[in-house]
Amino acid sequence: MTQYFLTVPHDTATEPTMESMQEFDPEELAAVLAAVDAFNTELKDTGAFVFAGGLNPPSTAKTVDVSTGETRVLDEPFVEADAYVGGFWVIDAADEDAAVAWAVKASNALQCRIEVRALQEEPEV
Question: What is the pLDDT, as a whole number, of residue 44?
Answer without folding.
Answer: 98
